[in-house]
Amino acid sequence: MNPIIPVWCYNLVDELKCIDSLLHFHRVVYVDTEFPGFLIDTPRQASESLIYSNLKYNVDVTTLIQLGLTLSDENGNIAGCWEFNFSFDAQTKVYTDDSLEFLKDHGINFEKLKNDGIDIRFFSDAFVHILAKHRNLKWITFHGLYDMAHMVTMVTKSSLPPSSLDFTELIANVFGCYVFDIKYIATFCDGLSKGELGLEKLAKILRVKRVGGAHQAGSDSLLSATVFSRLKTVYGIDESRHVGFLYGIGNRIRKSAGWKLWPFAHLVTYGVIPVEQRFLWVTILST
């Protein structure tokens, strides 16, 4: 049995109902995304302003291909892993050739994405409705700057804000402040190359085995979950030291009164979800 559940347009509603139910007791969410490349490459030693400027450009002009979500409780007991596959037509979407070939080589079926992929706006509406009911979740990524950026643009259906400070405040007001980046945490752990390791190498050092294929969002989110659990066991991680930091930018994720309309309750109330779809999802997810 495959522990990673592939989600397409035809089983989306059933799997969202399952996630909605599990989030009551499994409030730790491991996130990974796959997207169609970097239109602008960022040098390794780039300034934070350049890192964010390139991030904004790359994310604003591209769209998600896959979203991986793994749920667990605070003790690391995993409830499930889902890989959402979004509609993607190479004839109409922005991408880099190298990235598409790379993803094809790692098993992503672009013909099936075109035919059976999930409409990302429809998913966004449903996702917002579910998360409006489940506040105070803990979000964990690996090298999660682009993951969180794509999540933000998906939920808000708008471009990223102009500055990294606005970006971190927006994350806080949409997803909350309990955001962790395993790559950032690894910079404080002896023997882990000051955070310079990728997820695969980190997993090997920690003797964690992968389930599924590398560079697929479901497998990467599940591997992040097992790596984080192992990291806590081996290094005795004090989460309070690392909460709110993403590898690559210095601003801590904090709430700001200036973003009053972005908590999920406000998103649902004030029309990011169209009224007719809001009632549709209340009906679908309550049956």
TrEMBL record:
Entry-linked InterPro entries: CNOT7/CNOT8/Pop2 (IPR039637), RNase_CAF1 (IPR006941), RNaseH-like_sf (IPR012337), RNaseH_sf (IPR036397)
Keyword DNA-binding recorded: no
The alphabetized UniProt keywords are: Cytoplasm, Exonuclease, Hydrolase, Metal-binding, Nuclease, Nucleus, RNA-binding, Transcription, Transcription regulation
Known catalysed reaction(s)? Exonucleolytic cleavage of poly(A) to 5'-AMP
Q: In its keyword annotation, does this UniProt entry include Transcription?
A: yes
Tell me the GO molecular function terms: metal ion binding; poly(A)-specific ribonuclease activity; RNA binding
Q: Which GO terms describe its cellular component?
A: CCR4-NOT complex; cytoplasm; nucleus
The principal location of this protein is: cytoplasm
Q: What is its EC number?
A: 3.1.13.4
Localization annotation? Cytoplasm; Nucleus
Q: Which cofactor does it need?
A: a divalent metal cation
One Pfam annotation reads: CAF1
Subunit relationships: Component of the CCR4-NOT complex, at least composed of CRR4 and CAF1 proteins.
Its function, per the record, reads: Ubiquitous transcription factor required for a diverse set of processes. It is a component of the CCR4 complex involved in the control of gene expression.
According to its UniProt record, which protein family does this protein belong to?
A: Belongs to the CAF1 family.
Kindly provide the name given to this protein in its UniProt entry. poly(A)-specific ribonuclease
Origin species, per record, is Jatropha curcas (Barbados nut)
Recall the taxonomic lineage recorded for the source organism.
Eukaryota, Viridiplantae, Streptophyta, Embryophyta, Tracheophyta
